[in-house]
Amino acid sequence: MRYTRIIGLFVLAAGLLAAAAASTADIARIKDIASLQAGRDNQLIGYGLVVGLQGSGDSLRSAPFTDQSMRAMLQNLGISTQGSQSNAKNVAAVMVTANLPPFASPGSRLDVSVSSMGDATSLRGGTLVMTSLSGADGQIYAVAQGSLIVSGFQAQGQAATLTEGVTTAGRVPNGAIIERELPSKFKDSVNLVLQLRNPDFSTAVRIADTVNNYAARRYGAPIAESRDSQEVVVSKPKTADLARLMAEIENLQVETDTPAKVVVNEKTGTIVIGADVKVSRVAVSYGTLTVQVTETPQIVQPEPFSNGETAVQPNTDIMAMKDGGQVAILNGPDLRTLVAGLNRIGVKPDGIIAILQGIKSAGALQAELVLQ
């Protein structure tokens, strides 16, 4: 009876360890790690004018295209501008951009971004006049118009100027109306192509296996196949509706996998270390040399009743200090141990970046080092 209890305790402990390992795994829905190929966005662009600015628009001499666009717009409205010259600074030429969402239908609205092209100092308080937005094929898919929302502001006086944020760019919420739908039809597709946002063979195979396990119970046959590290093709069963099929499989949970990677941004000193990064046993020594130069010039006065002149005698003190220099042994079988070992040396982020580069050169960093 005692041996039976001991065996039962071992089985219970093994079950708890397996449950703990499963809980630490990265579980995500398919809709969060993959996107539908037929459901991608399309970029739109257009050229327009912003009017109603308080003297912060383009100077028509420095930006002649603004003058030409304003004259063309007035001429289309039936107003002749020949022989006249305008020096108004309440108009600015802008580029208008937007993302056309998938399956968008005519009549729906979307947000647009507006950015100045000329020498306008601020777009605050302006109104975007009717601007057509075209796609890469040259077709017009939306028309934008409305009041701009600019987050930045600028205050200027005679001797000082205060600027916060960007005043030459803004947004028009729901400012564009879709006039043309995309030619592709979702219902006419014969399969679903899922594209992983982070390509990985292990994750792609797990997505296919998860979908096939569900399809075996729901339709009686596997329907998914992983083509490569980024695409998983799901065939449509004869008795299934494509939209309902996508709704069913996008909420399936999959255990994701990511390659070991260390991302370093030397400009900002940012270091991002992945969870699977490991470091082989390696010894690291870090020391910094600080050189301080101090200039204390001295004024030398001539003796009384002499014909000498006051002179400046330079006096320079140079002091060199060397900090650190201790040797530490790093052995990072997991992320927590690696971070603790780097913190134990007591270096700053720029020093950690140099250490990681040295460890990678030594072949002890079992991860990809990405320098930005």
From TrEMBL:
- What domain of life does the native source organism fall in? Bacteria
- Entry's localization field: Bacterial flagellum basal body
Entry-linked InterPro entries = Flag_FlgI
For this protein, the parts annotated as crossing the membrane are: none
Q: What's a BP term from Gene Ontology annotated to this protein?
A: bacterial-type flagellum-dependent cell motility
**How does this protein assemble?**
The basal body constitutes a major portion of the flagellar organelle and consists of four rings (L,P,S, and M) mounted on a central rod.
Query: What species is this protein from?
Result: Neorhizobium alkalisoli
- Any single Gene Ontology cellular-component annotation: bacterial-type flagellum basal body, distal rod, P ring
Family the entry assigns: Belongs to the FlgI family.
Q: What are the coiled-coil residue ranges?
A: none
Which keywords describe this protein according to UniProt?
Bacterial flagellum, Cell projection, Cilium, Flagellum, Periplasm, Signal
Example GO molecular function term?
Answer: structural molecule activity
Signal peptide region? 1-24
Put simply, this protein is called: Flagellar P-ring protein
Q: Which PANTHER family match?
A: FLAGELLAR P-RING PERIPLASMIC PROTEIN FLGI, FLAGELLAR P-RING PROTEIN
Described by its record, this protein's role is as follows: Assembles around the rod to form the L-ring and probably protects the motor/basal body from shearing forces during rotation.
